[in-house]
Model the fold of this input.
Amino acid sequence: MDANLHSPQRRLIELRIEHADLDAMIDRMGEQAGVAQTNDELSLRRLKKRRLALRDEIARLERELMPDEPA
Done:
């Protein structure tokens, strides 16, 4: 059972959930950014950077999990 807690498939699911959560948070911040403060802009940039890193990690895991296509 412990092996499933640390499996690449489970990690992929966790990353996708975190990515979706960041998407929602970024959207909400964008809607509220009528009078954006410097602090909010910095937070938004950090969230977007984290979201991009998650997307890269998701893509890397997906490549690892997909079997190679026969030549």
Notes: The two ends are 36 Å apart (CA to CA). DSSP finds three helices and no strands in the chain. The chain has one domain: 8-64. The first helix runs from residue 2 to 5.
